[in-house]
Automatic annotation (TrEMBL):
Keyword Transferase on entry: no
Keywords in alphabetical order: Aminopeptidase, Hydrolase, Metal-binding, Metalloprotease, Protease, Zinc
Co-factor(s): Zn(2+)
Gene3D superfamilies linked to this entry: 3.30.70.360, Zn peptidases (3.40.630.10)
Full protein name: Peptidase T
Domain Peptidase M20 dimerisation per the UniProt entry, residue ranges: 206-305
Catalytic activity: Release of the N-terminal residue from a tripeptide
EC class (word): hydrolase
MF terms (GO), sorted A to Z: tripeptide aminopeptidase activity
InterPro entries noted in UniProt: ArgE/DapE_CS, Bact_exopeptidase_dim_dom, Peptidase_M20, Peptidase_M20_dimer, Peptidase_M20B
Origin superkingdom: Bacteria
Assigned EC number: 3.4.11.4
Length: 406
């Protein structure tokens, strides 16, 4: 198919998938956490069957997998994208707009504009079509552009030679990778895989955080003020003392690149009980372990300071650094990705990712899974936008990997 036809198919699929509201909901414990994700999975399952996919399965968690048997030797390749869009307090309903950027600020709606003075990268797309929001929601190029690119590539796969390909579309990535952790990996039996979940121009990522979460529960001793002296133990003040034991320069707003941090995410308390939730992040595995040990030591110190309080700390690992899973036997997944991006006419730009993807979890399970750009910019914002040319470059990268044409 011609490039213009590819662009039209990408746009049509993106608008169709974006029309299904699939925002994840961190307040719910079920997987998926929203009905829209299951609706979208069913839609995609029908399309996968129409495209010739076999072993198309949706499980109780709305994890969708399908296989496309190949006719080329070589590694079995996996492609993974997530069904949910992020909840950042905006509307869960997405109304994308297709506009042509003429060099002037783009009026989105709801009082918002997409201004090239604020986002200079827009200048690279002067005269081109751009998909943007209506000012009420995120755009959802994270990750519905990925769904559209994978599905468009599969829709044309019948005309090309390719190795065995397995796709996985999973829910609830935005809230701790819950979906991919629920996936039966026997249905995703691949030699290497790729997520498409990165922003920027020709960006790839194979370095992510090691991530953990600490939940510290502090139970005090409540008392009426008339008899509180020598009796009351205030868990909120204990939480304050606990938090003060951490270095204020080791927080997200003070760090960059490979620098890690401990981030106090929330403090939820009353006169009897307070819960402090902390995110732990570091690219370096040893430093990650040291940060967890620092939290445990802080808990011990506070417990000794307040022996009448009950303090419990629970630390959970969430995902690992993709780079730690790479070695001589599987470095080909990154080498092939670089070559695939180069085949589109641009050199890949490695990103030290200050976050994680479904691939961060898959890599810890023995499936090396670097990340590919979607073509979008400004994820998790009303100012998110998706240049069609960059969208198509993402598609062409996926196509090159699938067909080994690089």
């Amino acid at each position: 198919m011609e490039a213009t036809s590819i662009a039209h198919e990408l746009i049509a699929r993106f608008f169709r998938y974006a029309a299904v509201s699939s925002q994840s909901d961190a307040s719910r414990s079920s997987v998926p956490t929203s009905d829209g994700q299951r609706v979208l999975a069913r839609m995609l399952a029908g399309e996968l069957r129409e495209l010739g996919g076999v072993d198309v399965v949706i499980d109780d968690f709305a994890c969708l997998t399908a296989r496309f048997p190949g006719n080329l030797p070589g590694p079995t390749l996996g492609f993974c994208a997530h069904l949910d869009t992020v909840d950042v307090g905006l509307s869960p309903v997405i109304h994308p707009q297709l506009v042509r950027f003429a060099g002037q600020p783009i009026t989105l709606g709801n009082g918002h504009v997409l201004d090239p003075q604020q986002y200079p990268v827009l200048g690279d797309y002067l005269g081109e079509e751009i998909i943007c929001t209506d000012g009420t929601s995120v755009l959802g190029s994270d990750d519905k552009a990925a769904l559209a690119s994978i599905m468009t590539a599969l829709s044309n796969l019948g005309h090309a030679d390719h190795p065995d390909i397995v796709v996985a579309f999973v829910p609830d990535e935005e809230i701790g990778l819950r979906g991919v952790k629920s996936l039966d990996l026997s249905r995703f039996d691949v030699d290497g895989a790729y997520t498409i979940d990165c922003e920027g121009q020709a960006t790839i990522a194979y370095e992510t955080f090691n991530a953990g979460q600490a939940v510290v529960e502090i139970v005090g001793v409540p008392a009426h003020p008339m008899s509180a002296k020598g009796v009351l133990i205030n868990p909120n003040l204990i939480a304050h003392d606990f938090i003060s034991l951490f270095d204020r320069s080791q927080t997200p707003e003070c760090t960059e690149g490979r620098e890690g941090y401990i981030w106090v995410q929330s403090i939820d308390g009353n006169q009897a009980r307070t819960i402090v939730t902390l995110n732990i992040r570091d690219h370096n595995k040893q430093k990650f372990a040291e940060r967890k040990a620092h939290i445990r030591a802080a808990v011990t110190e506070i417990q000794q300071r307040y022996p009448r309080a009950q303090i419990v700390c629970d630390i959970t690992d969430i995902y690992g650094n993709i780079a730690d899973s790479l070695g001589p036997d599987n470095q080909w997944v990154v080498d092939d990705l670089r070559a695939a991006v180069a085949s589109t006419g641009r050199e890949a730009r490695p990103l030290i990712m200050r976050g994680g993807t479904d691939g961060s979890y898959l890599s810890t399970q023995g499936i090396p899974t670097p990340n590919i750009f979607t073509g979008g910019f400004n994820f998790h914002s009303v100012h998110e936008f998706l240049p069609v040319s960059e969208f198509e470059r993402s598609y062409r990268t996926i196509w090159a990997l699938m067909t080994r044409e690089f």
